[in-house]
Amino acid sequence: MMHLADYLFRWTGDSAYADYYERNLYNGVLAAQHSETGMFTYFIPFKSGGHKIWSTPTMDFWCCCGTGVQAYANLPSGIYFYDEQNLWVNLFVPSSVVWKTKQGQMQWTQETNFPQDNRIRLIVRSELPLEAGLRIRIPWWAEKGSLSVNGHREKATLKPSSYHAIKRTWRKGVTVELILPQKLWLCPLPDEERKASLMYGPLVMAGITDREEVIQGSVSNMANWIKKSDEKRLLFHAHGQAGDLDFIPLFEITDQKFGIYFDWKIG
Q1: For residue 108, is pLDDT > 90?
Q2: Helix 63-74 and helix 2-12, axial crossing angle in degrees, nearest 10
Q3: How far apart are CA 191 and CA 156, in angstroms?
Q4: Is residue 255 part of a domain?
Q5: 6, 10, 62, 191: least surrounded by Cβ within 10 Å?
Q6: Helix (H, G, I), strand (E, B) or coil at 3
């Protein structure tokens, strides 16, 4: 499906396909590989208390192991796109790109620690000034984002699930800085609103637990009772529950038992 989204984006330029690609990257591709051993999982269980079953170097090896490697090999191709007038930035990944235009060659560097941090910086590295367009994706989940060029904030409102366009003469050292605030929100099942997964920006947050959980709290002020408990990583603790319940991104789950969809008694 990510291949299909990639082709549909190339044909249409619709940011919805890039949003879909991002969501599957973090919650599908990255979540399917063990961060320490490199092994791949056959599937991701949704039932609370389940755990990922990993391949092994010599005894357990599925078709997912081959496509998993292929998915990682394809990742660089999803960061940047271009047409005759514009460079398109779709993913927020530390990287660099050389864009060959009719007027000359442009080199950009992207600096970010996304999704752990919400700040993205794009820096021109080219020696010669060139006039061109830059289109930066504003994700579907990003509200009240901001963008500045060389410290001067753009006046235009950044609309989620769209592209912010900048056309100017780019010189070496020009820096574009994008701030994309992330927040906690619930993604319910289509046919059962009370059963939902916790999200943080585009990330599925897995609850570390060995049993079914019923979570209680107000959706309107989730940040008051689900609080970040580690400054260096995305670790959240749900207060006021029957037992201790911590949430981390699904792609960080390795051998822990976890749950994705929970029953929520929400106010």
Answers
A1: yes
A2: 30
A3: 38
A4: yes
A5: 191
A6: helix
Same domain, 117 and 155: yes
Query: Cα(153)–Cα(163) distance, rounded to whole angstroms?
Result: 16
Name the band, by pLDDT with cuts 50, 70 and 90, for residue 53. Answer: very high
SS3 112: strand
Cα distance between residue 145 and residue 139, in whole Å? 10
Over 70: is that where the pLDDT of 267 sits? no
Q: In the prediction, which pLDDT does 242 show? A: 77
DSSP code at position 251: G
Q: Which domain holds residue 119?
A: 82-181
Residues 199 and 139 in one domain: no
- R_g of the chain computed on alpha carbons: 20
Report pTM. 0.92
- 6, 18 Cβ separation under 8 angstroms: no
Average pLDDT of the segment spanning 84-91: 95
Contact at 8 Å (CB) between 134 and 165?
yes
**Quick check: is 152 in a domain?**
yes
Among 165, 95, 106, which residue's Cα sits nearest to residue 131? Answer: 106
For residue 193, the model assigns a pLDDT of 83
Q: Are 207 and 259 in contact (CB under 8 A)?
A: yes
Q: Could you tell me where the beta strands, DSSP code E, fall in 139-191?
A: 146-149, 152-153, 162-170, 175-179, 184-189
Instruction: Give the residue with greater pLDDT, 220 vs 162.
Output: 162
